[in-house]
Amino acid sequence: MRYSTRISKAFTLIELLVVIAIIAILMGVLMPALRAAKEGARKTKCMNNLRQVGMATHIYANDNRGLIPQFQQNDGNWLWDVAVRTCDALTENGAKREILYCPGGTISVKNTDPVAAFWQPRGDRRIIAYAWLGKRGPNRPDWLNARQAIYRKPYCTKVTMKNAAETELCTDAIPSVGTSVDGKNDEFVMIQSTILTGSGEGHRAGHMRGRLPQGGNIVFLDGHADWRGFPDMHIRHDTGDTRGPGTVRY
Fold this sequence. Notes:
Elements: H1 13-62, E1 81-83, H2 84-92, E2 125-127, E3 130-132, E4 168-172, E5 174-177, E6 208-209, E7 212-213, E8 215-220, E9 225-229, E10 235-238, E11 246-249
């Protein structure tokens, strides 16, 4: 009788180390691409959010002689501080609450947050995650507080304003502390907040790469949306925040 014997050859230690090294190299190559794809999907969703904000604004304007929502607001100096009645007008015309919050992976202001209920009214305002550039009522300034005259623009009041295709209506909020022209010396990651700072957090934009923003999405007054890279952004509003030079770029 014959007996066949098979000797199974196991991996040697060197072969195992080679396999592990190859896997590590592949992971190093693929992970940045996966992160970029994920951020690309967030940017697309963010742009779709802003398009819906634009649509809701136009639906409201069609019923209100071309006017955009611009209810009186006495609280809040940041552009994401928006009158409760203005937020309600947008949601009543198709902009669901969640689309008023950027899905960017690094955003500090979220639709649902364990620390802060941003949607909960604070005085006569809510905190959304986008910079709303509509007027804040008849008793508030007509113009945004740009630091350079070349970037000075009025708050939006009607969808038929001059140069509607070049007039920003709502943008990704890029908060910062500092006033440098190129932003390289400014702070974009830990912006002081009466709501978040106590928990060790600070405000930051949704599309960050390291300590600087990549840029942001914008919906214009005519309803079209586009991406603007950070190098093309400028300080277009100074909040006058007493905690420091709080500025907003778009």
